[in-house]
Structures are given as C-alpha cells and as structure tokens.
Amino acid sequence: MSTIARATSGLVRQGSRTYATAATGSSVSVPLALHGIEGRYATALFTAAAKKNTLPQVEADLKKLQTLVTKEAKVRQFLENPILGKHARREGVDVITQGQQVNAVTKNFLQVLAENSRLAETPKIIQAYQSLMA
C-alpha cells in the first residue's frame, strides 16, 4: 500500500466516524439525571416516548402495568423468573400486553427488557420513569 493510500485511508475512516456521530437528529432534554440500571432504562424510555410525542400514554401504560404487577402474583412471578429463555420472556410480554391498548413505545420497551433479561427491574424502572414525569 502506498504512503498516500495509507494517509488518506486514515482520513476517510476518521471522517466517516465524525460524520456518523454528528448526525444525531433532535435531542431530548431529560428533566432529571438518573443513575443505575433503572435510571438508564427509564431515561431511554423517556427519550423514546418524547421523540414520538407519547410521554403521557407511556406513563399511563406503566401505571396500568404497575397495578397489574401489584395485584397479580403470576405477573410478578413471571417478571422475577430468571430461568425463562428469551423466547418465553418475549411471549410473556405479548400475553401481558395482549387485549390492552398499549402504546407501541411501551410494548417495544418491554420487549427490550425481555431481550436483555431485565424484566425483574420493571417496578424500579416504572418508579424512575414516574420521577422523570413528576
């Protein structure tokens, strides 16, 4: 490889990285800095909901889910079960959200929690999200 080719290849890589990171789109201002796993997930959910203009709908969905987790032992056991595989967790989320008018952002978020084995954190994430909405 010639000296010129080596020098320009580094510039092309550097330029493409800069270009990729600069194109962030519209940013969302989060009202409160939260920490920990629940804080990161709540902030991500808040940001996604804000970009889709569905903050109140997502909050209402989470309140319904919080009530369901409190009242239904089976739902709570499902969320806390570390043995379930990804497929079973995703199916469980589908069952929980089935028949309810759940916002797409909320459903996608619950699927992400299922994929990342974070369903047990759901009650803490709901509390963190509510603190962002307060």
Write the layout of secondary structure elements.
Blueprint: H1 3-22, H2 36-51, H3 55-71, H4 73-80, H5 86-97, H6 104-115, H7 122-133
Helix pairs in contact: 2-7, 3-4, 3-7, 5-6
Description:
The mean pLDDT is 86. The chain has seven helices and no strands. It is globular, with a radius of gyration of 20 Å. With 134 residues, it is mostly helical. The chain has one domain: Orthogonal Bundle (Peroxidase, domain 1), CATH 1.10.520. α5 runs antiparallel to α6. GO terms for molecular function: proton-transporting ATP synthase activity, rotational mechanism. It is found in: Membrane.
Q: What are the secondary-structure elements, in order, as H or E? A: HHHHHHH
Mean pLDDT comes to 86
Q: In percent, how helical is the residue content?
A: over 70%
Distance between the termini: 59 Å
- How many strands in all? 0
Task: Evaluate the radius of gyration.
Answer: 20 Å
What share of residues are in beta strands? Answer: under 5%
Counting helices, strands and paired strands, the structural category is mainly alpha
SS element count, helices: 7
Using the 3D structure, state the CATH architecture.
Answer: Orthogonal Bundle
Q: Give the full name of the CATH homologous superfamily.
A: N-terminal domain of the delta subunit of the F1F0-ATP synthase
Number of domains: 1
CATH class: Mainly Alpha
Uncertain spans, ≥5 residues at pLDDT below 50?
A: none
